[in-house]
């Protein structure tokens, strides 16, 4: 039986191709001139990576210019793990931070395009998606780098962290707008948790110290990813002052969070965090279906859906009283929250998420949600602001949608969720993780 992470919408593609002058239905706005790039795991033919998260990273790019779709191409990122021909089973942290898969997200900062994975160094790629090499910011980065850094919209700084399965378990980093690593600060946590994302506000960083931990015995077995749920670990959110590094911890109901939507400070100075929450049971089911295991035994091939009970949730953290309030914002399973990144860390009205076959937009002001079916498996919807934006949701959403073994880049009006254009891609793009829009300078 082919494992769940190697078949259906997750099935890898076998090669690298390119195509020019892609068919477009609808009208691509001329100002969408740049590149959409999406990252995801793509084991080579014959490889069994043991877990969806462990396949070699492959970038898929679509070049748009002046209303046309000029090209599509896909490229594996040539990490040392890729070029050594090794399977991608283990975290790199602590040994060789360049021996990773770089399969999770892609960003651009101070002119560099970086493919990211949370257990190692970023890999720089060219605008044409060819690998330049591992990036440690001039030797200053000595930990892994999360795939979910946050750009402060006021300062242009890139805030991020690295976690490791040996001490230091958690390190906070700050990259200047010019791309210089100017701060690295160790943060005390009880153990090696799988910390996939974090949040920022104007004055704080929010840590997710949750009970999915690295397991040395699973690592020795060299199968799947060596992380498991641990009831004994507890669950905490931490609020760290960006200026002084002081962390205040808040116990919360045990849960897991892969992805943060946004955080901000409210009028009373409380820190409000919106994120997609998994209950212990929904985490175990999801992790098992992706090829991992809650028990140390590789999970059975199950559904390939990531969306098993993951729902939008809000934590309100009262720094004075030391109390955390929790509330569910919806009961619809969603994932991959995005927003207008000009609002990162600030009060924001809209979050965009995806359900299995739809884009779902949340309005924090009214509490309403809008659902736009896409007709296929729907990837993360990247928000692209309009040049003349007057409202937070003036812009577009870009998502790769796959149905009947064919993929398209769908462009929606972010305000109405009405389709604007569909770019037909020359091949099926496996369901993956995160993308970005890199406008021409
Ligand atoms: Fe992610």
TrEMBL record:
Protein name: Dioxygenase
Organism classification: Bacteria, Bacillati, Actinomycetota, Actinomycetes, Streptosporangiales
Top-rank EC class of the record's enzyme: oxidoreductase
Organism of this sequence: Streptosporangium longisporum
Recorded superkingdom: Bacteria
Annotated cofactor note: Binds 1 Fe(2+) ion per subunit.
EC number per UniProt: 1.13.11.-
Keywords: Dioxygenase, Iron, Metal-binding, Oxidoreductase
InterPro entries registered for this protein in UniProt: Carotenoid_Oase
Keyword tRNA processing (UniProt): no
Names of required cofactors: Fe(2+)
Family (UniProt): Belongs to the carotenoid oxygenase family.
Pfam families: RPE65 (PF03055)
